[in-house]
Design goal:
Pfam family, one: DUF6568
CATH topology of the domain at 52-154: Glutaredoxin
Structural class: alpha/beta
Number of strands: 7
CATH architecture of the domain at 52-154: 3-Layer(aba) Sandwich
Number of helices: 5
Helix content: 40-55%
Strand order of the largest sheet: 3-5-4-6-7
CATH superfamily of the domain at 52-154: Glutaredoxin
InterPro entries: PedC-like, Thioredoxin-like_sf
Largest sheet: 5 strands, mixed
Shape: globular
């Protein structure tokens, strides 16, 4: 006698019952799950408007005494999701280039972690304006378009 429930397209095996003896029905995503997925997708689309930068490339620019504005951010951060569209609009309004360092892998990327530690980037989003290879300004203001735009214009 087979005690296992039949497996269908709407069921999935669990790690506890990998032999197929027990299955759980697949659950439809909750509205919260759908919203979270949509926010992360929107963030990724908006981040493409910025200039992606790796830490080694950023270090090279700083060593060359370049002046640049960099946002340290990640798609899974709700505050980053709020800032990103406003930052993209402020960048377009000012015509300034904003560089983007994705911090999603900070814990597994020792180069990124060392940079964040060196520049005391404890939280995201963090927006830094580097001048002549040094931090000239750090944005700690509101996430409104007007405030971000003012920061970009002044730095």
């Amino acid at each position: 006698m087979n005690m296992a429930e039949p497996t269908t397209e709407t069921t999935e095996k669990t790690t506890q019952c990998a032999d197929g003896a027990c299955v759980l029905p697949k659950q439809a995503p909750t509205p919260e799950d759908e919203l979270w997925t949509a926010r992360m997708a929107a963030y990724e689309d908006q981040a493409r408007a910025l200039t992606a930068l790796t830490v080694p490339d950023l270090r090279a620019k700083l060593a060359a005494n370049e002046s640049l504005t960099v946002v340290f951010s990640r798609k899974s951060c709700p505050w980053c999701q709020v800032l990103m569209p406003n930052l993209v609009l402020a960048q377009a309004a000012t015509g300034k280039t904003v560089y983007y360092v994705d911090t999603l892998n900070t814990l597994s990327d020792p180069v990124l972690k060392a940079f964040r530690d060196e520049y005391e980037i404890s939280f995201v989003p963090t927006l830094l304006a580097f001048r002549a290879g040094q931090v000239g300004a750090k944005y700690d203001g509101d996430r409104s378009i007007a405030d971000v735009q003012l920061f970009l214009q002044n730095n």
